[in-house]
Write a structure and sequence with these properties.
With 80 residues, this protein is an all-alpha fold. The chain has three helices and no strands. The chain has one domain.
Length: 80
């Protein structure tokens, strides 16, 4: 989900290319290498916050409410 949303954001050319989050989720090693950049950037922008206990839960599912929240944050970010 993070990669899809990040690629959508890139289409608006409003994503800072130099922003990489220093903090990593406690399950960072479970995130696929190809998704880590998107997760880092969307997290640093405040679009994705992860789950409690500093987890990203890359193998889990997002609820409809979680996806709606992330999508609204992304749409607000690209509208600025």
């Amino acid at each position: 989900m993070a990669t899809i949303l990040f690629n959508y954001e890139l289409s608006f050319e409003k994503t800072p290319n130099d922003v990489i989050m220093d903090m990593k989720f406690s399950d960072w090693d479970m995130i696929a290498d190809w998704a880590k950049d998107a997760v880092s950037r969307l997290t640093s922008q405040g679009i994705i916050n992860g789950k409690p206990d500093n987890l990203f839960d890359p193998k889990g599912s997002a609820t409809r409410a979680e996806f709606a929240t992330v999508l609204m944050r992304l749409l607000e970010a690209v509208a600025e």
